[in-house]
Design brief:
mainly alpha
């Protein structure tokens, strides 16, 4: 189930980036940053988890994850624009109408 969740998060991240980036030529750069972050997490994660386990036991890893997820949730709410899907579709249709004229 972890793989299913990770796949969903990755696809969602790509969709959010592609909808937020105005210049379509920069999408590859931001998707590359996302992929790089996943790679760094895969390299650093096991070592950091082992270190935290040796310091505080099994529970410390989850306590830190709860704190980290709470901070990230607040940052996501503060940073991402608060637009409905309908508003985003209207913006996309307006910009595509301008491109064809």
């Amino acid at each position: 189930m972890i793989g299913v969740g990770a796949g969903g998060v990755q696809v969602s991240a790509f969709a959010i980036v592609s909808s937020l980036v105005k210049e379509k030529s920069h999408i590859n750069k931001y998707i590359g940053i996302i992929q790089m972050s996943y790679g760094i997490g895969m390299i650093v994660g096991p070592s950091l988890g082992t270190l935290l386990y040796s310091i505080g036991g099994f529970v410390l890893n989850y306590q830190i994850l709860i704190i980290l997820y709470a901070i990230l949730f607040i940052l996501i709410l503060a940073v991402l624009p608060n637009k409905s899907l309908l508003e985003m579709e209207e913006e996309n249709s307006d910009s595509s109408d301008c491109d064809t004229n």
